[in-house]
């Protein structure tokens, strides 16, 4: 990022924060110049200013706790008279880097939000569940082929496939790109969806990197408590050059989600990936043909019937 662009992004964030802290007087007179034409067509500048002044009446004074600048976006965590808030903006790529979006939302402490158990038990399910249900997880880093295999198995078996990237892409219009721990958010969504499927007596396929050992244990307990067969297809790519090539070339067309991302990020995650082994885990290398990989997957997920 150039220093000039960074200063422009910071200037836009500071302008929003000034409005939240004051929200009256001359603030907002330049809103039409600050907002991109597309943003202004969706939210009139005078309406934007009115909303910001309403926020100021509710939240001021605000104190900035942290600021994060990423590319054309910026996010600040602020403390207010009613608790902590997140303020996130996105700006245009070209100068003068006008505002494309702005999100102001409260932060709810994780410990105050109800959620499903970290470890599931049989009493979390009913007693009349049918046999033959399966929870199949396709795990592994981006670019290892897990989504391709998950979708193939879903089509063949008629089992719903829930994928992290599709869920996160759907959240982008609501400011999802600015949230912390996106993979954690996706994991919680997938846990809810899988739990619901199993409660209904149905199977589910999950598509997520599953790098966190705690999440691995949580999903294993979910399947065990429901009396479902738990299968993990661990997609990997031992050849690092092949992995980078696959990652860089993929195009998936997921609405709201990026096509590639950063290979340097994936390379770091390769080094940090915690091994996953066991009777429930089938390693599949991306160097295999899709046909060979699918044949191995088919045999593995029905192993309890053999």
Automatic annotation (TrEMBL):
InterPro entries per the UniProt record, alphabetical: P-loop_NTPase
SUPFAM superfamilies, alphabetized: P-loop containing nucleoside triphosphate hydrolases
Pfam families (alphabetical): AAA_33
Full protein name: AAA domain-containing protein
Organism: Microlunatus endophyticus
Lineage summary: Bacteria, Bacillati, Actinomycetota, Actinomycetes, Propionibacteriales
